[in-house]
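Illustration 12: Glucose 1-dehydrogenase.
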Amino acid sequence: MTNFTDKVVLITGITSGIGRAAARAFAAAGAKLVLGSRDAVAGEALAEELRGRGGEALFVATDVTAAGAVEALVAAGLRRFDRLDVAINNAGVEVTGPLEGGDEAAFDRAFDTNVKGLWRALRAEIPALLRGAGSAVVNLSSVAGMRGMPGASGYAATKFAVEGLTRSAALELAPHKVRVNAVAPGPVATPMLDRFTGGHPEVMAQRVPLGRLAAPEEIARAILWLASDEASYVTGTTLAVDGGFLA
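Figure caption equivalent — predicted structure in token form:
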């Protein structure tokens, strides 16, 4: 298994689903955690849970759509741990509905979080990551960023943008030995999927060749691998963890 002892890992969007599973997985692997999310109560509760298990975790209320928020998260992490080795950019929201008559305000919120929020996060994280040796970034994409998705064109557009940001950042940072990759989950048993399907996530499970939804912990394990030294020659790519959905 991957070992993150003495590594400092920053994760955004940690209060449910994949982000929460990733925080627990990195803590179990020995990482020191810098955690950010909009929900201050749930975020601090998770940090306290991890500290109760013997881990080191700092939580800072963070809204990636707010100017300076991720910079403040990074700065707090540097004050506490004096370094940053890994950044997991997980904060994201869904937007559904047909193109015709679509909710423009919801579309704008999704782009501000999923795309501009990621751009803000990368911009804030890079100076700290460049201080280390062999740092890594993992962005959360989606299978919706690798194929069309009727009824969710806005969400798919944000995740196609995540793909472009990931590959471009990987090329910019490769000379500095900072790896940048993405994970593209298929249907995962999370509150987001419940909302996405109107409370009927089983309809998505029927479209997966393996015949079930992923558990958030299964996505977290893929994130850990991409962030670890075991993936030392992997950059600029997206790992689909989708039960065969794209196939």
